[in-house]
Structure formats: C-alpha cells, structure tokens
Amino acid sequence: MPSACDSLIDDIEDMVSASDPTPHERQSARKTIIPRARKRKEQLLSEELQADSVIPGTQKIWMKTWGCSHNNSDGEYMAGQLAASGYKMTENPSEADLWLLNSCTVKNPAEDHFRNSIKRAQEQQKKVVVAGCVPQAQPRMDYLKGLSIIGVQQIDRVVEVVDEAVKGHSVRLLGQKKDGGRRLGGARLDLPKIRKNPLIEIISINTGCLNACTYCKTKHARGDLASYPIDELVERARQSFQEGVCEIWLTSEDTGAYGRDIGTDLPTLLWRLVEEIPDGAMLRLGMTNPPYILEHLEEMAKILNHPRVYAFLHVPVQSASDSVLMDMKREYCIDDFRRVVDFLKERVPGITIATDIICGFPGETDEDFQETVELVRLYRFPSLFINQFYPRPGTPAAKMEQVPAHVKKQRTKELSQLFHSYNPYDHKIGERQHVLVTEESFDAQYYVAHNKFYEQVLVPKRPEFKGKMIEVDIYEAGKHFLKGRPVDDSKPFTPSIATPLQKGEVSGLTQLQAAVNGVSVCLSACVSPINAFERVLRKTHFSLVLLRRLGISPALALFPLPIKTIKHFVYRRLFIIFFFFFFFFFVVSE
C-alpha cells in the first residue's frame, strides 16, 4: 500500500512552483520593506525610575503623640532618629509630606482623635505611618488597612518604616524584642532623640506590667513586665545630664514593679540614680500601683525625702470599693492603698499623692461610689484624675453588664464637684520655697517651676530663670498652682552641668559629631567626580537603576546626612567610594 507521501513529490525542490518569486525578485523586494522599530523597555525603565526617584530622608514629617509620658518618650526617640537620618521634623501638619501618628489606647476619646487624624491625613493626600498602643493591640482594625505600623518595641526601626512609606510601600513591624528567650524592655536607650523640652529627660525604666486589669487595653499592647538593666538606665541619666538636662522623669506602666523580672527592685535603681543627679537637678517618679510599693515603703520614704528627689508619688486607687476592685482584678484592697498613703504622709511630710478614679465601672453600685467619694473627702488629694469608664474592645470589662451612661456622667460630675470644692494650696501662702524652673505656661505669661513637692509654681517670665533653681515667696494660690515672687537678694542657681540643647536639636549625637563631620568632609570632595561619573553612566539604561539598587541616590544627594545610624552612615559611604573607584578604573578607563 503506498504511503501518503508517495508519487506526489519526488524531490524537495518540486515544492517551488513556477509562480513563486525568484531569489533576485526577493532581494529587490527588500528595498521597499519598512522595518518595524523594535520595542525597547524604555517605557518600563522610565516608570521604574519615576517610582524609584523618591529619595527617602528629604521629606518633612509631622508627628502627633497622645497619651502617657512613656508614649511621649517613644515619640521623642522616633523624632530623633528621623532627624538624624535627614528628615525634617515640622510643627506644621499642612506642610508635612508624612504624618507619624503615635497613639494611646487607654480611653475611647484618645483613639477617636487618632482615627480622625488618619482620615484627615488621607483627605489631604499625606503619607501616614502609625505607632503606639492602638495599632500594636489591634493591627487589623479596618481604618488601619494599608498603613505602615511601628510596634511599641520597634521604635528603633522607625527610619526603615518611614523610608518605605514615602516610597508608597506598606510595612508593619509588630514583633517583640528578646534576648535568649527573655523579653527585653524595648528599643535601646542610647538612640538619638529630640526632647520636647530640652531641660527634661523622660526615661522608661520598664515596659508592660504584672497585672491583668479587666478594663485595661494597654496590657494588650505593652504586654508583660520587661525591665531595662540598671546600668543602662544610669548611663542614660548620665548622658542626659551631660546634655544640659536638669530634671528626669522615670516612667512606665508600673514603676513599682520594676526589676522583678531581672532580680532587682525599684529602690536599688533609685539609689543608683540619685548618685548621678547634680546639685539642684531633680528626679520625679512615675506611676506605681499599690501592690508593688507596699514591700518597699521604708526605702521609698527615705528616697522621697532626698533633696534631689521630688516628694511626689502617683498611686492610682481607681475605686474605694473592695467589690469593684475585685471585679477590676486590681490585686489589692482599699486598706492596702490607705496604708501606702498614711505611711508616706507620716514619713515624708508634705508629700503630694496623686491618684486616679474610674467612675461607673461595670457593677458599681451607689454604695460603692459613695465609698470612693468618702475617700476623696478624707484625703483631699491635690492631684486627682477622674475618668468616666469607657469599655475598651477586647477587654473583659467590655463584656460585663454596663452602668447606664447617664449614671456614669452623674457620678463623674459629682466627684468633680467635690474635687473642686477645696483648695489644697491655701496654707502655702507666705512660704519661701526653692523651685526649679523648667517650662512655659500654656498662656505664655509665666514660667512654670516646681517645688520639692512637685507643686506647680508660676514665676515671672525672665530669661535668666529658665533652667535655674530660684528662691521665691508664695503670694497667691489657685486650685492647681501657686504663684511665687523671686526673692530680691537671692541668685538663681544653675543645676545643669552643661549647656542645654536647643529646642529641636538631636540628643545622643554629640560624642560622634566630629567623626560624622570628618566623614562628610571627605565625601564632599568626591562629589564632583561622582557627578561626572553619573553623567557618563546616564548614557546607558541601567545606570540610575543600578545606583539605586545599591542604595545610592543620584549625585549622592544625601551624602552629608547620617543614614539610619552613624554606623550605617560610615559603612555605606565607604562602600560607595570603593565601588566608584573600582568601576572607574576597570570600566570607564576601557
């Protein structure tokens, strides 16, 4: 049987028919063919260059912080690192390219302000990075979708996050810092920072706490207790005094619990810190819960009597009802609180005890509330923070049966009226006191000073008083302040051992500034050949992309600025120099 190919074609040449063009005709036809231009990747390259042409470190950043002094300290550290990396911190949100919003999760109103700020930033087409306790505790909230997040223990990486955010990327860093399985207090204490007040250093001695209060959302963000080593805290205080600071605030979620996770305690830390405080400078203790101060009352009384420590302690009671305290899981009874207050009032004459009270906690009866009213009436606290209860999502208290809103408001109003019915400072009129001047009043009419008991004293706004210990005669008393008249024949005393930094100046860079300047001078000499080299490479399509992939901006626009940290600054720029010399010698010379 013949195959399918048999007899049809005897030779391959038979496939060419007579009607096909000859080779000569095909050659002639080529002259009339218009070649189609080859599609190059120019469009893709231009898009890549446009997206990559954002140079991190040249933008303006506005930062807003809500909440406690611990959160304010975190904000100061983040601002310092950003400024050290070349970003410009601005107080004008409208001119900023990016908003860094550092949130507080204690109460609903604070989170509402935070959420509204995010919405306002997006309406103004601003880049947004969020930080603080709200995104740490609830990163999956709808209004946080697509936003970059800096966790409360990741503030040392704020520059990385902002770098990516200005490029349009979303980064979330929410992990915990650990060493050998042990949770650390957080970011290093020696990071650059910009103090909101150059005269005041805020030091967080630990993060988290040992409690599990049923109303607290902060626990979800800050976690369990993690303390910084004493040596690191002492070194931070020492550095602060060398930068002109004259007042230190110790802060945390519970200073009284300090050290329980690392085998030490609060009094041990305080005695070490007192040794570093210059004459005339002062130390202020932060909030401590009753359970963890009870066993240290004797030592704490001695420390609070020290001339360089304010006789001031913030001890939140929250309620005077044992039933309510049990529902809150506060781990103490009202007698424990009374013992702390009575002991310190006896051993530290004139001490200021500040406290907090929550009105309308779930299950609080009228009888429970009246016990709290009687406590305030008995002690007449000069500083009292009254808070209407707000159920925070995800907390056990949010699932309890709630007190009606109108009852909560009425109790809050009643307690506030009681607080404003007495004047705690009237007996101070006529006293002569030494006060430390550190701030300006809100109305900008006075300087704000504090006496030994951390009572606010308004003094005349004279430039020579700022940052000084002065002697005043008290001539007027208000609900929250005293007014003092400087004693004529007394001279202001300067407690600072160095000139304070200027407002907005970055702390923590002074010891390395000479090295940085030296590197910058050397690199500046390389700018001209680098510019010429870039012009040569610009003729090829890969030049700018290659430079940027290596982390190098065109013309090294950021060459005089530290990148993320001083260490990375030096390493990166040495690499740049060696790279250019190598490329110039082996490529361009060819």
Concise structural overview:
35% of the residues lie in helices and 16% in strands.
What order do the helices and strands come in, and which of them pair?
Layout: H1 23-29, H2 42-52, E1 60-65, H3 69-84, E2 88-89, E3 98-103, H4 108-123, E4 127-132, H5 133-137, E5 148-150, H6 158-166, E6 172-173, E7 178-179, E8 182-183, E9 200-204, E10 206-207, H7 218-222, E11 226-227, H8 230-242, E12 247-251, H9 266-274, E13 282-284, H10 290-293, H11 297-304, E14 312-314, H12 322-328, H13 334-347, E15 352-359, H14 366-379, E16 383-388, H15 405-419, E17 432-440, E18 446-450, E19 456-460, E20 469-477, E21 482-486, H16 513-524, H17 527-537, H18 543-549, H19 566-588
Parallel strand pairs: 1-2, 1-3, 3-4, 4-5, 5-6, 9-12, 12-13, 14-15, 15-16, 19-21
Antiparallel strand pairs: 7-8, 10-11, 17-18, 17-20, 18-19, 20-21
Helix pairs in contact: 11-13, 14-15
